[in-house]
Design goal:
The chain has 209 residues and is an alpha+beta fold. It folds into two domains: 2-68, DNA polymerase, domain 1, CATH 1.10.150; 76-195, 3-Layer(aba) Sandwich (Cytidine Deaminase, domain 2), CATH 3.40.140.10. Helix content is 44%, strand content 18%. The protein contains eight helices and five strands, in the order H-H-H-H-H-H-E-E-H-E-H-E-E. It has helices at residues 2-10, 17-30, 33-38, 41-45, 52-72, 81-91, 129-138, 159-174, and strands spanning 99-105, 111-119, 143-150, 178-186, 189-192. It has a five-stranded mixed β-sheet, with helices on both faces. Helix 1 (2-10) packs across helix 2 (17-30). The longest helix has 21 residues, at 52-72. It is elongated.
């Protein structure tokens, strides 16, 4: 179980009942395994009973998980918004500042490549649309999915996210590229902007691409 994995890692730094005490403190502070692995180093250290070595181990676990996930991506197909959300939640695991990523898809929806076009602060990120279009073209693809994270908050898209997605879709369309989706990743999960109502608040069922 995921919680057992966290306690196993902590077992290399703590002994006996101390493992469960620190584990409980982490889950009380962050709420879930995903949020623990997404937490910045300094926030991990601030949890009751945590040490610097234990925080480093958890950050390494997050990094190893991301690398192993990237190795699996070669045969991965993103055929709907659910699979895209899962993919980007893994991609953003452990990222503590806002990033913007572009995932290039082949005609069979398999992942041809994924690259980061912007790295910002906890509160925002600037991106270059021309850089995104050029990156997708280099992959030889005509379809893509974009994603950005809200490292300090939930996955609900902002009004700005929704408006900018429409503009981005138009820019890609002019370049002969189909934007399939825009995924927002937060500490509480991920949300497809294309899966919400026009007002940005009414969820609709996940759709096939």
């Amino acid at each position: 179980m995921p919680r057992d994995a966290i306690e196993l890692i902590l077992g290399y730094c703590f002994g006996g009942a101390e493992v469960y005490k620190v584990s409980n403190a982490l889950f009380e502070k962050f709420g879930s395994v995903q949020k623990i692995l997404n937490a910045p180093y300094d926030e991990l250290c601030a949890a009751e009973g945590m040490t610097e070595n234990a925080a480093v181990l958890l950050r390494l676990l997050s990094g190893i998980y991301s690398v192993s996930g990237a190795m699996r991506d070669e045969k991965l197909k993103l055929t709907d918004s659910d699979s895209a959300c899962e993919y980007f939640m893994r991609s953003f695991r452990g990222v503590s500042v806002e990033n913007f990523k572009v995932c290039c898809l082949r005609e069979d929806f398999s992942v041809a490549g994924c690259f980061t076009v912007g790295r910002g602060s906890t509160y925002g990120v600037d991106v270059d649309i021309r850089e995104m279009i050029a990156g997708v073209s280099r992959c030889g693809c005509s379809m893509c999915i974009v994603s950005h994270n809200h490292p300090g908050g939930n996955c609900r898209p902002s009004a700005t996210d929704i408006v900018s997605t429409g503009r981005l879709a138009e820019a890609f369309k002019e370049a002969g590229i189909l934007l399939l989706d825009h995924i927002v990743v937060g500490r509480d999960g991920a949300q497809s902007i294309f899966d919400i109502g026009p007002d940005g608040a009414r969820p609709v069922p996940a759709k096939k691409y």
